[in-house]
Each structure stands twice: as C-alpha cells, then as structure tokens.
Design goal:
By secondary structure, the protein is of the alpha/beta class. The protein is built from 10 helices and 4 strands; from the N terminus they run H-H-H-H-H-E-E-H-H-H-E-E-H-H. About 40% of the residues lie in helices and about 10% in strands. Helix 3 crosses helix 4, helix 3 packs across helix 9 and helix 4 crosses helix 5. The radius of gyration is 18 Å and the shape is globular. It starts with 6 loop residues before the first helix and ends in a 26-residue tail after the last helix.
Length: about 220
Amino acid sequence: MVDEITDFEVLEVALRELCIEKGIFTAAEHRHFTEFAEQIGPTPAAHLVARAWLEPAFKTLALTEPMSASKEVGVNWMEPTGFGTPSDFTAFQILEDTPTLHNVIVCALCSCYPRPILGNSPEWYRTPNYRRRLVRWPRQVLAEFGLYLPDDVAVRVQDSNQKHRFMVMPTRPEGTDGWTEDQLAEIVTRDCLIGVALPKVGVTTNVITDTRPAVHPIAD
C-alpha cells in the first residue's frame, strides 16, 4: 500500500530525477547528502547559545558575526556538509531575546530554515497552519505551544526567505547559576531556537510537536 503524497513531494521527486539525468549530481551523491541532513540536529546551535550565556565576548561575536561564531561550534555555513555540497543561504542572523522582546522565526512563503546549524525542520514548521497564522496571530500560535508571554513583552516574527536564515538566542533562565556549557546546552531545545518555547530547568526535549486547530481572535 502506498500512502498519498503531496504536490511538493511529487515536485521534489521530479526535480531530483531531472538533476540526476542532467548530471548535476548523482544518485549516490544525493543519498549521501540525505543521510547527512537526517543526522544533523540542533546540538551545535544549543552549544552556541550556552557558550554565549557564559562568555560575553562570544555572545558579541554570535550577534555581530554569526557565521564566525558558528565555526566555533563546528558549523561552516559555506560548506556545511564537509564534502563539497554548498549551503543554500546568503545571510545568517542570530536574534537575541530580551526581557521585553521575544523573537520567533517562520518562513511564510515555504519552509526556509537554518538547516546547517539546526538540522531538518520539524514537520509542523512546514505546515500552512503554522506559516500563515504566525505572522497574523503570533501570540495565539505561541499559546498553542504552551508559551504565554506577558503583555509587556513584544513579539517579533522574523520571516525567513531564500536569502536569509535566522535563529533565536533565548534569555538564560533563572536557576542555572554555576551550570556548565554542557548542562546549559541540554535545556536549549530546538523549539527554543525557533522561538516557540523558552528554556526551562528540567526540560531537555521538544515536548510540543504539533499545533492544535485555530480559533480566530474575536476582533477578526
């Protein structure tokens, strides 16, 4: 039995087969890259944030020269695979949360995502339910992830695109004084780096992986 596939999956298969036919890459090279992409995770990004919390100078580097900071945690944006496959980005920026500002990333057009440092995007990130609604009702969508922000905290939705990739640097939570980089990195989850969650002591996994049906605000 074959599950139904989407139009995007049909397009991906067609484009992949055409590239192989034209000699842009071989089937073996595609398999190699796919295996690489599937094993990437957000660990480098988590260590980047943890180190920035501990070292003010590194935090400045991360916010002003994020590509250089990425290299410090083992990610080369110009050649992320290490075997000749170029990155698909032009610019990378790290967005710093503050006590009065919360950042969250999205790609309203498709599903652009900082894969070299965060790995593959979660399924919900690619859905129209998330992409189309976050830019209109960010607080409502964040609440569906269990994240309720005070009214005095502004929410900034950063829309990724073909030329720009973004990642969130959340605020260090209370109760982590004296922690090591490894301890801090454990609570910097993928969802925190996207901006749909905040780091919390004792939370080391992405406990929310799906969004619930929308209920439009009364004002609409």
